[in-house]
Amino acid sequence: MSFARLKEITDISQEENILFWEVVLRDDMKERNVSREESFATMEGMLDAMESADNDYTPSLKSASGLAGGDGEKLEKCRQENGKLVGDFLAEVMEKAVKMGESNACMKRIVAMPTAGSCGVIPAVLLTYLNQKKVAREKIVEALYVAGGIGEVIATSASIAGAEGGCQAEIGSASAMAAGAIAYLEGGDNEAIVNACALALKNMLGLTCDPVAGLVEVPCIKRNVSGAVNAVVSSRIALSGIKSAIEPDEVIDSMRRIGRLMPACLRETGEDGLATTKSGLAIANKISKVL
C-alpha cells in the first residue's frame, strides 16, 4: 500500500466514486500485482485465520510464565450470566479480545493486526459483529480493507511499533483501525470512518509500552480489551454525526510527535512504568526463576 494520509484515500474515493475499502483493494492489486479476486482471497484468508484462532482458544492452556491463560473463559462465563452491566455485544468483544491475547501469549497462531501485541482488538470487534449481526462474510472482508487502509496510513505517517511509539502505536493503532472498520459496517460514509478512527486514536495518545518482565502479557492482554471497546464506542460517536475537532490526519501526526517525545524507558524496554512497580518487579523476579 502507498497511502500516507487518510485524505488521500477519501479523495480517491470521491473522485472515482468508489467506496473506501475499494480504494485500498485497488492499491493492493497494484502493489502486489494481483487480481481483484486474488487480493480479496488473501484478505479472506486473514478472516479465516482470525476465526480459527478464536475457535481454537484453550482455556486450560497457560503461557510459559504462568501470567496468561483462562481469563477469556472467565469473561465468557460472566457474559452468560444474567444482570450484566454491559450489553451482550460489548461483553463478547471483551471476551474475544482477551482470548486472542492469551492465545498469542501461549504461542498459538494469531493474526498480527497490526501487531502481535494488539492482535485481539480487530478480531474481537469484527468476529463479534459477524456472529451477532449475521452479515455476509464478504462485508467483514471489506471492513478489513478499511482497517488495512487506516493501518497503512498510521504505519507510514506515525508508527505501529511499541518500541518506536509506545503502546499508542500498537493498541492505539488497532483501536483506530477497528473503529473505522465498524463505522463502515454500520453504514457510515467516509467522514464517519475517518472520524471514528480519529476519535479512537485520540483516546490512546500517550499510552506507554511498559511490559512486565518484557513479556507481551501484562498489561498488554487486557489493554486489548480497552482498545476494542474504545473502537466500538468511538465508531458509535462518529456514526451519530459527531466529528473530531482535530482533523483525523492531524491526530495521526500528533501520535508521531508524542511517540518521539516519549522517553525510551516507556517504549517497550520495561525500564519504567508498570514494569518497575513493586508488583511488576516481584513478578519479573519470580518468572526469572522459572523461565
Report on the architecture of this protein.
It is built from 13 helices and no strands. It is an all-alpha fold and 291 residues long. The longest helix has 21 residues, at 137-157. It is globular and about 60 Å long. The N and C termini lie far apart (40 Å). The model has no long low-confidence stretch (mean pLDDT 97).
Please supply descriptive tags for the structure shown above.
13 helices, 2-methylcitrate dehydratase PrpD, mainly alpha
Any guess at the CATH architecture?
Answer: Orthogonal Bundle
| Number of β-strand runs | 0
* Main pleated-sheet profile: none
Mean pLDDT score: 97
- Structurally, the number of domains stands at 1
Report the structural category.
mainly alpha
- Portion in beta strands: under 5%
Short description:
This protein is an all-alpha fold. Helix content is 63%, strand content 0%. The chain contains 13 helices and no strands.
Give the topology.
Elements (H helix, E strand, L loop, with lengths): L5 H11 L3 H13 L3 H20 L15 H10 L7 H18 L15 H13 L3 H21 L4 H4 L5 H15 L4 H13 L17 H20 L8 H14 L16 H11 L3
Helix pairs in contact: 1-2, 2-3, 2-7, 3-7, 4-5, 5-6, 5-11, 6-7, 6-9, 6-11, 7-9, 9-10, 9-11, 10-11, 10-12
